[in-house]
Amino acid sequence: MAKIRITQVRSLINRPETQVRTIKALGLGRINRTVEVELTPQIQGMVRKVHHLVTVKEV
């Protein structure tokens, strides 16, 4: 599987609870926090749900 690097770039203030939970499940929660994860269909769906809050780079 490919790996991707996800960085949170926007705040969670005034966001729906589902988006906040998705960000927490990805291992983020603060601006500029970065995680490296395997690109699975589940992760891909989570990233699609919060694409406006994060940046994604292939590793």
Short description:
By secondary structure, the chain is of the alpha+beta class. The protein has two helices and three strands.
What can you tell me about this protein's structure?
This protein has 59 residues and is of the alpha+beta class. The chain has one domain: Ribosomal Protein L30, Chain: A, CATH 3.30.1390.20. It is 31% helix and 27% strand. It is built from 2 helices and 3 strands. It has helices spanning 17-25, 41-49; strands spanning 3-8, 34-38, 54-58. The chain has a 3-stranded antiparallel sheet, with no helix packed on it. The N and C termini lie close together (11 Å).
What's the average pLDDT?
97
- What is the SS-derived class? alpha+beta
Envelope shape: globular
CATH architecture: 2-Layer Sandwich
